[in-house]
Amino acid sequence: MKREYVIGLDLGTTSIKAVLFTTTGTPLKEAEEPVTTVHPSQIFAEQDPNEVEFKALKVLRDLLQELDIKQNTLVGIGISSAMHSLVLVDNDFNAICNMLIWSDARSKKQADALLKQQGQEIYKVTGTPIHPMTPLLKLMWMKEANFEGYLKATYFMTIKDFLISRWYGKRIIDYGMASSTGLLNLKNLDWDKECLKLAGIKKEQLSEIVPPTCLLTDMKSNLREELSLDYDIPVAIGSSDGLLANLGSGAILPGEINVSVGTSGAIRQFASGFPVNDKMETFTYVFDEKTSVIGGPTNNGGIVLDWLKEVLEFKGGIEEFIKGAESVPVGADGLVFHPYVNGERAPLWTLEAKGNLFGLGLRHKREHIARAALEGITFNIYRIGKALDRMIGKPTKITVNGGLARSSLWVQIMADVFGQEVYISETHNNAAWGAAFTALVATGKAKKFVEIKNNLPKEVVVTPNEENIGLYTELYEKYLRLGQILEDHF
Question: pTM surpassing 0.70?
């Protein structure tokens, strides 16, 4: 009997990855290729979309060559993609310049001006915070700067609909990727007229919006030959990486949140409908016609610890650096760390955010600073989580994954700060598995997205320390009071 498999293609910012799964979620093989980011100036961040396409085809080809599809059945492929990219495309679906990725900040001036004028109104319509990361602001900068590529472009795409246009000759984009552009109206789930006006483009220059289960067939014959495919594999368009990471971790029911912290981090939760935060602390990204994912990304996860390790000239590894903090009590003997060393997105949404270490004394050592940093990173995530609480209630389950989840100290801090059990997910391919499962739903191999819960690895549970819960409640209030003073001086 033929065995069945499914592939998740994950178009990340730092690398392109394809993961081969059994239909029950066991990862078997993966292929990964790095992607080059260039910085023509300090605030510019660009990638070559043709390199992304080449690497995407390469990782797919590498996996397919190892899979004998005559003896096995490849059910389908699902696509996950990093958000907020902008590709300028000509009439023949060729990129006419490098794409701008989320971290490109050249539209800061436009973001500041829009916030003062009608930013809150735009945010409430789109659910996407006003920030230079979004294609809306990038397009506004291009419009004002008379950017050559903008003036010549026929179409404006994200990296995902760019690849689809190249592979299938169609211009379609899923709800999640469309939502992350800052141009999607949450009420009618169509391109917003006012946002189009601000961007200076027409609706016809954007792709048609479709659900995540939209199936692509009839791949161009030359690409099938390149991938050595004898038949057309159904490809589900999928969604954005953040939304699919939640799906892939099983955090899909109301009250289930997923916290992922690697270099950066995010806290997210599925919600019915499209609720929007009054203070613009969080995003609301559409998943399908009835469901959204709300949450917030932080720029300051593991990158803070890497930076501190370098500044303090610690010669050991990052694990050893963190482990040293285990000898320090809760609160790091009076140190409070605001982790905004890399600017910040949620909940502040400003590139001007600055880090702060308060309370230093002669008694403090490297280990104290490391502990304060871990607590500060967690307090920032908790602050975003509190915004989610106000919108849709306290979480019933918290799952964590990412590089920091390997630290038992950090996971314990998470449990103590949130005052709840924390479940450690053993999978490190959440977005890819979420994409692959979308393909299973799209092809009828699974009936509902919630069925992914039947195909997840065993979780490790960390219980909060009751004494520490009270201590962290007081420390968090101090963190907030100091933060309010700090924010006045950004």
Answer: yes
